[in-house]
Amino acid sequence: MVDHQRTFFYQAGCGCTSAMVTLNRLSVEDPCDGSALLPEAAEVATPTPVYHKHGGVIKNNSWDFFLSRSENLAFSLVLLIGSYLVILIPAYFPSDKAASLSNDYQHPKDLVLLNQSASLLSGPCQPRWCLNHLKPLSCSVGLLDIPVFVQQDRPVPWDRSPPLGLQGSEEPLALALASLPQPGLPPSLRREGSCRRCIVVGSGGVLHGSHLGSHIDQYDIIIRLNNAPVRGFERDTGSRTTIRLIYPEGAPRSPNEYKKTTMVVLAVFKSLDLDWLTSVITKQPLSFWSKMWFWKEVVEDIPLKPEHFRILHPDIIHKTGQALKDKKYAQKHGNMVPTLGASAVVMALQLCDHVSLAGFGYDMQHPEARLHYYETIRMDAMKAQVVHDVSAEKLFLRDLVAAGAVTDLTGAL
Q1: Are 160 and 318 in contact (CB under 8 A)?
Q2: pTM across the whole model
Q3: Mean pLDDT, the chain, as a whole number?
Q4: Which of 108, 205, 281, 397 sits CB 3.0–4.6 Å from 179 for a disulfide?
Q5: How far lies 359's CA from each of 109, 134, 187, 372, in Å?
Q6: Strand, coil or helix: what is 218?
Q7: How far is CA 128 from the centre of its chain?
Q8: Which of 4-8, 59-63, 231-235 has the lowest mean pLDDT?
Q9: Which Gene3D superfamilies match (predicted)?
């Protein structure tokens, strides 16, 4: 036993909160066995500092800054989660300000194109502007006054097979026409007494980042091709569709792509395409055997009423092909079928007084460039196709632009 004063920690109540006391003598008994301190020790015990009891737990004022283990763990978790959120939220949900800065940034060339487009839209619409500027061109022979849609009361060239005619397709054509309640042009596309502006929206990668969407939506007739998407690309492509020119394998699969669509027009490349159209209109499914003859799975339902479907007159494709065979354009030998894009331009010349193009022009000099605005396939993929003469089409469209018959909004021709 030691007589001088000694300071040490003891456990209050065996396992309870530690306390520091100053004793003159030590008890010979262990306080953790439940016994009290010796009387003399208890009398002189002077606990420092003062303790307070809160909610049944003894706390030391000098240690109130620190948390219990469970509180500390909870606080750490909240801090950790908060840190992650601070980092991750801006990445996945960029602020409107950041998005605005990104969207508003424009290359100087793009700003020039936008200004030219705005100036064009603000100018007066002059009747027969396109046809008047088309006539001086040598390629214009046969491109004037072509019927646009197949009608029961107009003769159809039977001496050529699809897509240049409808020879051998008499029966499926009759069934398809019988399912169409309205022949010819719908009232919204008739030109009598009005001047109309058309725009043909191509699928070219040059449209990516163009910010032309709000301009495109201002046209009277907006023509799109195959499955080129609108949803998610409205800033560059606009949101409305007047005519979507398709063949069965190229029809959009998503029902959302047919919203804000006035008409779907079928380009017939084989007799079976007419069977497909009848099936889509009447909601009667094609046979399994018929489906096997398509080179790609085709959509079985298009959420439009029968009056919103038409059949492209094969003379549109035929006359476009003839124009491309001009010796100043032809780059390949053989029977090259014009693309839907070139055919759509010729169709637009029949429907409208002013025609503009956006998303046209394959730049084969830059094989690494984006082929389509909606995917990452590169330009050199076009070298593998042998059906179309895209070089001849570019020269043909470039002549139309130079003559003032059409306007190229994206400047790639």
Answers
A1: yes
A2: 0.72
A3: 79
A4: 281
A5: 15, 21, 28, 9
A6: coil
A7: 34
A8: 4-8
A9: Glycosyl transferase family 29 (3.90.1480.20)
Q: How many Cα atoms are found within 13 Å in the side-chain-facing hemisphere of 160? A: 15
Measured over all CA atoms, what is the biggest interatomic distance in the chain, rounded to whole angstroms? 129
How many whole angstroms separate alpha carbon 151 and alpha carbon 46? 111
CA-to-CA dists, residue 260 to 66, 281, 309, angstroms: 63, 18, 14
Structure-block tokens of residue 50: 């003062």
From CA 228, how far away is CA 246, in angstroms rounded?
10
Looking at residue 38, its pLDDT comes to 38
The token pair at 172 is 């499926």
SS3 category, 365: coil
- Surface-to-core class of residue 175, CB atoms within 10 Å of its CB (0-12 exposed, 13-18 middle, 19+ buried): middle
Tokens of 390: 């895209």
Q: What share of the chain is helix, strand, coil (3-state, %, to 5)?
A: 40, 15, 45
Distance CA(58)–CA(19), nearest Å, equals: 10
Measured CA to CA, the distance from residue 193 to residue 145 in angstroms comes to 17
Q: Could you say which DSSP state residue 179 is in?
A: T
Distance (Å, rounded) from C-alpha 233 to C-alpha 370?
15
